[in-house]
């Protein structure tokens, strides 16, 4: 399960940072009429978010998560700052799972 956790963690941080940059780009676009940054960042964030979804599916299947939990983790990449929180909670849950299985 550790092999699926690393890509998830990396993508959670990358998607979170890109989402924050996208929020700045949207403010520039709709607040100041400067659309060039959002035209670059939006497709990059979208592609990375798709990779994030694949990483969540991979980790969720290996960890045998329930579908509602997996969907909640997937939504973590859509709200600014939420992906950082979700990444920390998921990491704690995954790292605690082997300890619970050994007990």
From TrEMBL:
Entry superkingdom: Bacteria
Q: Which terms are listed as keywords in the entry?
A: Cell membrane, Membrane, Transmembrane, Transmembrane helix
What are the transmembrane regions?
12-28, 40-60, 66-86
The answer to whether the entry has keyword Transmembrane is: yes
Q: Which GO terms describe its cellular component?
A: plasma membrane
Q: Keyword NAD on this protein?
A: no
Q: Where in the cell is it found?
A: Cell membrane
Q: Where is the DUF3817 domain?
A: 5-91
Q: What is this protein called?
A: Integral membrane protein
The record gives the membrane topology as:
Multi-pass membrane protein
């Amino acid at each position: 399960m550790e092999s699926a956790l690393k890509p998830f963690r990396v993508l959670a941080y990358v998607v979170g940072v890109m989402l924050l940059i996208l929020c700045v780009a949207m403010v520039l676009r709709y607040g100041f009429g400067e659309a060039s940054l959002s035209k670059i960042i939006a497709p990059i964030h979208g592609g990375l978010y798709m990779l994030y979804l694949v990483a969540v599916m991979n980790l969720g299947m290996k960890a045998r998560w329930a579908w509602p939990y997996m969907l909640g983790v997937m939504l973590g990449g859509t709200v600014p700052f939420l992906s950082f929180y979700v990444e920390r909670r998921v990491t704690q849950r995954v790292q605690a799972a082997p300890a619970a299985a050994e007990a």
